[in-house]
Write a structure and sequence with these properties.
The chain contains twelve helices and two strands, in the order αααααααββααααα. It is mainly alpha-helical. A two-stranded antiparallel ribbon has the order 1-2. The protein is globular and about 55 Å long. The two termini are about 40 Å apart.
């Protein structure tokens, strides 16, 4: 149950890593597990809303440097489909590499690769491969409606892609705030949605017997339409640096 508790707190990659340690996870190839996963997470397919005229391939490039981020990667996070763990990635920034050696060029070469990816300069098949997800089912300690084990399903993406996007967002993501942050009605200013969410969580911990929200928070899953987010980004001239990677990752 440790893995499930980590997942409840939003620590998805640590939850997956804990499941790997304890073997407390589903056999994703089992028919009953696949059936349960399809019921809980039905396949969604949105209409083709892409306008190729939006992209102009002479747009300015995203330039990122992952050097500092490598040293801050969570060593307890589970790896994605490739198996490349954060421990391996962090080791690239080791200070023990001999000066002038090939090994010393590992991080600069990783940064070059990162910029190729974030500017959609790699082969299309590889760009799509980076979107792969490793599926894991955590045992919730109870029965599902078919009397088989009830699982909480997680998807673990590729660690390299997560590193690249995190660094790019930290340095070039301010343009997203105008349409990703909640807005106060009629005022057009960022709302206190995050403050409300954190404050409610703290109050619930301090006063566990008081009913603040009547809902099944444990099994509540938010839903967002990718179409709306992508259209907002592509329509915003301030986000023009992001257009190539957004187009590549959303329209294979």
């Amino acid at each position: 149950m440790q893995a499930v508790n980590l997942a409840k707190r939003g620590q998805i990659r640590r939850a997956a890593n804990k499941a790997n340690e304890t073997q407390d996870k589903a056999n994703m190839q089992a028919p009953e597990v696949q059936a349960q996963a399809q019921v809980k997470h039905p396949r969604r397919q949105e209409a083709n809303y892409w306008d190729p005229k939006i992209i102009t391939w002479d747009t300015p490039e995203l330039q990122i440097d992952c050097t500092a981020k490598l040293k801050k990667l969570d060593p307890l996070a589970a790896p994605g489909p490739s198996g490349m763990s954060n421990r391996f990635l962090s080791a690239l920034s080791s200070r023990v590499w001999p000066i002038g050696s090939e090994a010393e060029q590992a991080v600069p070469r990783l940064n070059h690769f990162a910029n190729l990816y974030m500017n959609a300069k790699l082969p299309a098949w590889y760009m799509q491969l980076m979107l792969s997800v490793r599926q894991i089912g955590l045992d919730k300690g109870k029965k599902w409606i078919d009397n088989n084990t009830d699982y909480r399903f997680l998807g673990i993406g590729e660690n390299l892609r997560r590193l690249f996007w995190n660094e790019a967002f930290n340095n070039h993501g301010k343009c997203f705030r105008t349409f990703f942050e909640p807005q106060q009605l009629a005022m057009g200013t960022p709302a206190g949605g995050q403050t409300l969410a954190l404050g409610t969580a703290l109050l619930m911990e301090k006063y566990p017997d008081h009913v603040f929200i009547q809902d099944d928070i444990q099994n509540m899953f938010g839903e967002a339409l990718r179409k709306e987010g992508v259209i907002n980004i592509l329509a915003n001239s301030g986000c023009i640096k992001w257009h190539k990677i957004i187009e590549t990752e959303n329209y294979p």
